Every structure is written in structure tokens, then in C-alpha cells.
Amino acid sequence: MGRYSRLREIRRLDPAEDYERIHRSIALYEFPWDYTQGLGIAFLRDYGVPRISELLDRTQEFERAGQKRYDDTLLFGYEIAENGFESERGRAAGRHLNRIHAKYRIPNEDFLYVLATTVVGPKRWIDAFGWRRLCPNETEALALVGHRMALMMGISGAPSTYDGFEKLLDGYEREMFAYAPANRRVASATLRVMAGWYPRSLRPLVTRLLLALLDEPLSGALGFPIQPAWVRAAARRALRCRALVVRLLPARPRWWPARPRPRSYPFGWTLDDLGPHWAAGRPLEPLHDEHQGRHRSSDEQRTGGRTGGDGSYRASSGRK
């Protein structure tokens, strides 16, 4: 397969019908590393909002088990992207997410913003640092995946276009970004996780380079100093050099999609492993369309739309 063969294939697809297929191509074949980095920056953007960071800070999940919290967030997204919104496994991942979120009173606008970061963050990162920019079909597919996620999770008011998500994100940040001590605590815990992936001697440098990739509004909201211009330029130049190298590599073959390698689960995971320790003791929460009577299995009908934490919706214990 040539380097641009998959791009030509994506351009022939209809995003309105094939958005999940295109999304899998982005996340698992064309830009697996860049897509994950874009999501990582998206996590940090969430912490610039005091209302969000204070809730996360109260849970102490990042301080106690930051690597697991990071892994779990990525794995929930992976399960849905890999298996599809209408697959039982993808829908089971959605029920597990609902179970976690149901414990807290989270405003719909905060859900919308967090969702927007997962659409806009990867797009902006890939366009800036990927081996090529996203084509219009890929951009549209990202937005439609975000819209479909909102429908599945019962988040109202989600846009169906990328421009809509970007406008939502930028407007929310203008209104809600503000410094609070909780912002810095949660962001610092996450940066320690990211820096911890590298040898101890390199961690101060890695942390500084990560900070150099944050824009000024986000740095201010997190309480971090703006890095010198030469550090910011060096970080961006290094990423663009990487992109030039990746562009010369062969395309990832169809039989070799990118797979997550979560440090928290070296021997594999189940859906019940994902999330805070207390979540496994709570009943699964139906998805929004299941409240309306769609996609109800016979087990759900017997239990009023809920399932227990047994093996019915467990992922396989090993990596796929």
C-alpha cells in the first residue's frame, strides 16, 4: 500500500455514511500517535475550567492513580472507535462511562465542551504536527463521530460540523477559562504522568517541552509560566522533523492497526477494570437511546434497562 493510498480511499468515501470507518483510519492507521497526542492536549484543556478541574481534584483520581486515569480515558475511546457505536462492545463501553458520570451532577455545557476538545484537539494537532493535514472528509468524520457520541450519551445541543465544534470550544474557553489552584494541581499530576514515560534524567526537559506546546490562554488558566520563544520554537521544530520522517515511512498495513499499550494493564483489561475503583460496585447506566426503548437486549428487558457488572459486557481479558 502506497503512503497516500488510504487518503485516496478516504476521499472516495461519504463521511455521512462512513464516518466511523474514516475515524478508524485516522486513529488506528494514518495518525495513531498524533491522534493520541491531540487527545492528551485535550485533557489539559479541560483543566483550564475551574468547575471541571475542581470536580476532578475532589476525586483525587489523578493524584492517587494518574496513569490509570489517563489509560482509562483513552481505552474507553478506543473501545468505541475500534468496535463501532452500534456494536455491543462499543455500547457496553458507553454504559460504563454513564455509570461513572452518573455519580456527579455535571452540566450539559461541560459535557459539550469536553466532547468538543476530543474533536478539535486531534484535528489541530494533526494539522500542525502530523505528516499531512486532514482532508475535508476526515475533518467531517471527526465531527460526526463527536455528534454520534453525544446522541449515544444523551448530551444535548452537540454540533454536527467541525466548524460548529470549534466555535463551541472557542466560545466556551473565552467565557470559562480562569486560573484556580485546582487547575494547576490536576494539570501537574497529568504532566507527571506524561513525563514519567521517559527516563528520570529526561523528565525535566520533557515537562518543559510539554509546557511549550500549550497556548497562552491555556498556560495562564493552568497557572504555568509561558515558555521562552526559543523553547516553543524548538518543540515545534522537533515535532515537524518527526512528521517529515513519518511521511517517508510506508503506510500501516490493514492487518496491523495501532493498538493501545496501557501501562496500567500490561496483561490486558476488561471494561470493568476501567474507571474508579468504586464504579464496579454500581449498576450500569443505560444509554440515552436505551431509555427510549431502542437496542434493548432480552437481559436488559428483564432487568429494567440495567445490567450488572458481570461478564455480559466484559471485554476480552487480553489485548486484541
Automatic annotation (TrEMBL):
InterPro entries: MPAB (IPR046366), MPAB/Lcp_cat_dom (IPR018713). Residues 61-240 form the ER-bound oxygenase mpaB/mpaB'/Rubber oxygenase catalytic domain. Residues 281-320 are annotated as: Disordered. Residues 285-303 have a biased composition (Basic and acidic residues). GO terms for molecular function: oxidoreductase activity. This is ER-bound oxygenase mpaB/mpaB'/Rubber oxygenase catalytic domain-containing protein. It comes from Streptomyces pristinaespiralis (strain ATCC 25486 / DSM 40338 / CBS 914.69 / JCM 4507 / KCC S-0507 / NBRC 13074 / NRRL 2958 / 5647).
